[in-house]
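Quiz preparation item.
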């Protein structure tokens, strides 16, 4: 039975779950997904400290033009042990240095005459001025980094500020990619008559590494059982396996046959989508196995719509779909099938909102339309057209043109 797009995607997502966590060093954490919440092990700042280069004082002494005796100096990195601000005195202090006993305000150097032995104040002072109080940023025990958070540079600053050297993040899945077909040769190899360059392996690998998973290009299997068996058994070692070509109606169907003989339990073959309709999905134990059609545009759309959300789920992401927007259609968009139709479109920002138009010939054999597109318009199976001026749902591939 051919699955609808949503049925197919739900079956896939029901069989995708986050991999286990691993410990990863600070320097390699960006964009990784936290496997375990991180609680603040200490207050931040750890102690009351000065926000400015200036003078630690008692605010009550600090009427305008007050003169205070400078009794000590606390540079950054020093302790304030044994240092005390007595009434009528000031302690010279640098930004970040701990605030000494008796001090209840800091006077920035630019609000004084900068005196070394006595200092004259040019502004009135309030209690608490320019002190960064212990725990005022983050209190010990607070959870700022919940499980599932995708780590950004600021998060990594926080982990480092806690003096952690590593964090537990979800393991990156390995994704084996197998191209199949007697007609294929690797890029750069001599092209005999009737041969076609294996370009799918590289776009799939790029799409896999773009989201932070680990592609493993297995090369090309010929359309014969022995060649397929060997390569498929290598591919089944990865966390997720993608084969391209050899699953369309006209093919001898060897890919699905050998996958099945190799222990892959097929959950569906064929989805009511265009492009990407002949896609098959199965499980090797609990590992997802996808067979996408060989046509480059079809393989890329099948990855986008069916594989990418599964892979992101395995990586622990909660946001597994592309950001979606609605845009006004310029020129009609047609769905000549009774399937969910993915149309490659160009989306632009205009004074009256987002406008989308076809990025060119929508024939699945046309790669250049995919290159020009920055979005995919989704026409439901029961909608034959969206007329100019009407709204359409669009998945954004890479932002919106200005
Ligand atoms: P198939 O899915 O086997 O019917 O292939 C459909 C079309 O995609 C054919 O024109 C193939 O030559 C082409 N094709 C198959 N595999 C690849 C590949 N790895 N890279 C580029 N084109 C391919
Ligand atoms: Mg083929």
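Solution:
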């Amino acid at each position: 039975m051919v699955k609808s797009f949503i049925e197919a995607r739900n079956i896939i997502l029901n069989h995708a779950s986050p991999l286990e966590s691993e410990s990863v060093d600070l320097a390699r954490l960006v964009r990784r997904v936290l496997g375990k919440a991180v609680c603040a092990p200490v207050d931040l700042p750890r102690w009351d400290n000065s926000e400015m280069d200036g003078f630690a004082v008692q605010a009550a002494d600090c009427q305008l033009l007050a003169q205070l005796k400078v009794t000590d100096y606390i540079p950054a990195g020093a302790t304030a042990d044994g240092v005390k601000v007595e009434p009528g005195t000031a302690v010279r202090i640098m930004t970040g240095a701990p605030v000494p006993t008796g001090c209840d305000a800091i006077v920035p150097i630019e609000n004084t005459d900068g005196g070394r032995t006595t200092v004259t104040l040019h502004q009135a002072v309030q209690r608490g001025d320019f002190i960064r109080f212990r725990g005022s940023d983050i209190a010990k025990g607070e959870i700022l980094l919940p499980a599932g958070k995708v780590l950004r540079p600021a998060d990594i600053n926080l982990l480092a500020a806690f003096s952690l050297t590593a964090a537990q993040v979800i393991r990156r899945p390995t994704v084996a990619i197998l191209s199949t077909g007697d007609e294929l040769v690797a890029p750069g190899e001599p092209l005999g008559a009737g041969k076609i360059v294996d370009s799918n392996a590289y776009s799939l690998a790029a799409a896999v590494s773009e989201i932070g998973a680990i592609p493993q290009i297995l090369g090309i299997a010929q359309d014969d059982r022995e060649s397929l068996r060997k390569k498929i058994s290598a591919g089944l070692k990865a966390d997720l396996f993608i084969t391209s070509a050899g699953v369309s109606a006209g093919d001898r169907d060897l890919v699905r046959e050998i996958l099945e003989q190799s222990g892959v339990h097929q959950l569906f073959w064929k989805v009511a989508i265009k492009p990407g309709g002949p896609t098959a999905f199965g499980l090797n134990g609990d590992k997802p196995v996808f067979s996408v059609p060989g046509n480059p545009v079809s393989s890329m759309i099948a990855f986008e719509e069916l594989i990418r959300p599964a892979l992101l789920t395995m990586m622990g992401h909660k946001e597994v779909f592309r950001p979606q927007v609605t845009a006004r259609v310029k020129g009609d968009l047609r769905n000549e099938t009774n399937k969910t139709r993915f149309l490659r479109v160009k989306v632009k920002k205009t004074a009256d909102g987002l406008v989308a138009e076809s990025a060119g010939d929508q024939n699945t054999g046309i790669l250049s339309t995919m290159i020009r597109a920055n979005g995919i318009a989704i026409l439901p199976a029961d909608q034959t057209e969206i007329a100019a001026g009407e709204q359409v749902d669009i998945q954004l591939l890479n932002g919106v043109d200005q």
